Amino acid sequence: MSPFPAHGRTNDQRSAEDLAAQAGRLLTDLRVSRVAPEDLGAFAEAEAQSVIIDRLAVARPGDLVFGEWDPDSRARLEADRVWFVDPLDGVRSYVTEGRPDWAVHVALWEKDPEGVGGITACAIAMPAYGRVLTGRGATTYQPTSIIRGPRPGPLVPPREDDRLRIAVSEAEPPAFAEELAEELDASLVHLGSGGGKTATVLEGECDAYIHTSGHHQWDSAATVGVVQQRGLHASALDGSELVYNTEQIEFPDLLVCTQDVAETIIDAVRRYL
């Protein structure tokens, strides 16, 4: 386990990456453990959460943590630093043998001098690939000593034409997805996790990711942080800004895309909202 960096903007970013990678290694090990398949998802998510929480408790004792496994409190709204954590994004993919589209999300929200704040450190680990996606690009790490054989191929097949590619949920795609794809002459890519769909945009495999079935702040904080740091577009489907560490913890939808198609997609989906 790498030493946890001290405070500081650069060190906070390293910490987010280390936390995501460490949880990813554990999840990779647990995926081939003797845990019963029906219990694996919940068990692995709880264990990954514990790794992140325990490390933050020691190294960042004054910071708050917010996620699915953490009780909410008004203290979060007054805090200067809040970590948003999704220890296992894409449980259905994780428990399905051979599926690589699952992720770990870690993001730090910090209050700025004006008292507003925003995401200042963020990382998305794709453990099946041994990669951590950040605003600077991607880093690789050794997933685990247990894994044998080649790593999985790309999340999606190579492009066959220059049509727009839009990633959508495998389980709950937008009700208007097919109609939108026809209108934009786009092809749809169905994937399991938000991190996986975001990765396809970050890696240039898709042009956009559209989500309409709601999400919590901890589900998308790292996504929005990494995407915006890369200079790409992330917003609500109507183009409005997603603001974190607010009283309202849920967002109805999400758009992640390259800047050149953002206006086109926002205009096209407006009539469906």
UniProtKB/TrEMBL annotation:
Annotated positions binding Mg(2+): 68, 86, 88-89, 219
Protein source organism: Dietzia cinnamea
Pfam families named among the record's database cross-references: Inositol_P
Coiled-coil segments: none
SUPFAM superfamilies: Carbohydrate phosphatase
Cofactor: Mg(2+)
The keyword Repeat is annotated on this UniProt entry: no
Molecular function GO terms recorded: 3'(2'),5'-bisphosphate nucleotidase activity; metal ion binding
Protein name: Inositol monophosphatase
InterPro entries the record matches: CysQ/Inositol_MonoPase (IPR050725), Inositol_monophosphatase-like (IPR000760)
Alphabetically ordered keywords of this record: Magnesium, Metal-binding
One example of a Gene Ontology biological process annotation: 3'-phosphoadenosine 5'-phosphosulfate metabolic process
Keyword field contains Magnesium: yes
